[in-house]
Amino acid sequence: MLGFLSARQTGLEDPLRLRRAESTRRVLGLELNKDRDIERIHGSGVNTLDIEPVEARYMLSGGSDGVIVLYDLENSSRQPYYTCKAVCSVGRNHPDVHKYSVETVQWYPHDTGMFTSSSFDKTLKVWDTNTLQTADIFNFEETVYSHHMSPVATKHCLVAVGTRGPKVQLCDLKSGSCSHILQGHRQEILAVSWSPRCEYILATASADSRVKLWDVRRASGCLFTLDQHNGKKSQAVESANTAHNGKVNGLCFTSDGLHLLTVGTDNRMRLWNSSNGENTLVNYGKVCNDSRKALKFTVSNGCSSEFVFVPYGSTIAVYTIYSGEQITMLKGHYKSVDCCVFQSHFQELYSGSRDCNILAWVPSLYEPVPDNDEPTTKSQLNPAFEDAWSSSDEEG
Amino acid sequence: MSRKRHRLVPDSFGLKRRREQGQAEADPLRGESGSARAAVAELVQLFPRGLFEDALPPIALRSQVYSLVPDRTAADRQLKELQEQGEIRIIQLGFDLDAHGIIFTEDYRTRVLKACDGRPYAGAVQKFLASVLPACGDLSFQQDQMTQTFGFRDPEITQLVNAGVLTVRDAGSWWLAVPGAGRFIKYFVKGRQAVLGMVRKAKYKELLLSELLGRRAPAAVRLGLTYHVHDLIGAQLVDCVSTTSGTLLRLPET
């Protein structure tokens, strides 16, 4: 590391190299930290998490009881022991709360004044953060499994919604109604994701084992369907292209948008080239997937070899994306993990699970060297770890 | 959390100076790390030829190659290269969409010719082996490919299916198959369940590898314990834990 620093100082190497090396080192050191806690508000499983892209300071979480909570992740106290407090929440007694479980929440990509949430009660609600009221409600005929708004869109404000029906609906926030329907899938749409590279490219994953890439400007069907065998493309066989041998549960573009990761209930994860739909055939081994709805996994951002964090039962498995090797399994939750998000400024991972907890995985590098000059202050110690017996030798 | 991840990345990214790894454990199965071709050659030695009276070519499985070559992506790439060079054929074994059998092309050719010797479909099979096999390295064949590119008529394709060289996949597409492989698949599936059962019945559902190999094979295991253990490890049906007394096979919790 000193070599990187001196090379950066003398100008021999690009400053980005040092940043990526240090980010990778920190991601490799992720573990549960006794000093970092998230306040426990949810009374039932946490289904979805999202960190706002502007400052990476506020996090939204949606639970199985319809509750949405907003957390402030920044540690403004001087102490190492810190609980991320909930700033506000949409609880069960809020007039506009979702009736059933909230499946996806997402911040408005450009600022934190607005966020969207979709739920099993067949609605997509657009919320104003400061007043915590719904600004708009979109109603659908079927339960909504997932929605996504493009993080790089400047020319459109479309929200892609995946429901139990086979049609993908695109809702326009400016006009307040559904503007497009994309037809092509045959069963429920479990996950949708816009490309972080091009604002018009959308990927959708469905329970009929297919993943389709769409350009929403095109009037005729999808661009292509991903085929796990990379077979010769002929018209008769086009309908038999499947991305997985089971339902496709989760979709995630890599941070540069050049590759797409998919997970399926056949316990496999696949990496695809997003420009031509080719299966790169990277083999991650068995990635256990029992979830019947969408599995929200995430990729790291800013490391030299990118990592993917996938919920694997009650643990989180960490793999390098392009070589497929498993780095570690993060153990800490008591029940199955449903979602995880990566905060790229500090290389922290937050995960939510069915045991109603949100855990923070923080890079643990070096123990702070105890300074012998200062007296150890009692306030440094977490009150849970203080012992209650007296230190004197006498009885009583 | 395991600390082993630090071994996998270069020193500049490592948190601690990694210690030099000691000698690899003297374990009969796990010490290999070589190319996929060496792995396949070794695995076909394990295949019991006498069981099928030499009528079947020695078949190795892709999951067995994964147990010998730990990096799966590299193993896949090497197998694909071997397939493109025409040295091996990959066959879809019917019981699992993921299980692929690997056979050396030469062995496949000799056995198929021997199996169809003197039968009415010998001509069609020889034409197939001569024209289609070298040209197309895929697992499956399509209708228009067979009729237009290679000039097969429908009765000839029916003869190929009767000979066991092709298996029906879909209307108008066929998998490549090995004649007489049904017995192998039956023994394989039964043997896999039997070896898994041995681990399942153990206390705490874990067995030392050396102990498992030392036990007497149950009657259902006809292909050999080592053959099945390689397959179970590679297919991740058991977890491999390295201990001070050797490798331990444990059933995964899920």
TrEMBL record, chain A:
GO CC annotation terms, alphabetical: chromosome; Cul4A-RING E3 ubiquitin ligase complex; nuclear matrix; nucleotide-excision repair complex
Organism: Acinonyx jubatus
Function per UniProt: Substrate-recognition component of the CSA complex, a DCX (DDB1-CUL4-X-box) E3 ubiquitin-protein ligase complex, involved in transcription-coupled nucleotide excision repair (TC-NER), a process during which RNA polymerase II-blocking lesions are rapidly removed from the transcribed strand of active genes. Following recruitment to lesion-stalled RNA polymerase II (Pol II), the CSA complex mediates ubiquitination of Pol II subunit POLR2A/RPB1 at 'Lys-1268', a critical TC-NER checkpoint, governing RNA Pol II stability and initiating DNA damage excision by TFIIH recruitment.
Disordered as annotated region, ranges: 371-396
PROSITE patterns on file: WD_REPEATS_1 (PS00678), WD_REPEATS_2 (PS50082), WD_REPEATS_REGION (PS50294)
Highest classification ranks of the organism: Eukaryota, Metazoa, Chordata, Craniata, Vertebrata
Protein name: DNA excision repair protein ERCC-8
Gene designation: ERCC8
WD repeats: 95-137, 182-217, 241-282
SMART domains noted in UniProt: WD40
UniProt keyword terms in alphabetical order: Chromosome, DNA damage, DNA repair, Nucleus, Phosphoprotein, Repeat, Ubl conjugation pathway, WD repeat
Automatic annotation (TrEMBL), chain B:
Keyword Signal: no
GO MF term set: kinase activity
InterPro entries noted in UniProt: STK19-like
BP GO annotations: positive regulation of Ras protein signal transduction
Region (Disordered): 1-33
Keywords: Kinase, Transferase
Family, as annotated: Belongs to the STK19 family.
Protein name per the record: Serine/threonine-protein kinase 19 isoform X2
Organism: Acinonyx jubatus (Cheetah)
Gene name of the encoded protein: STK19
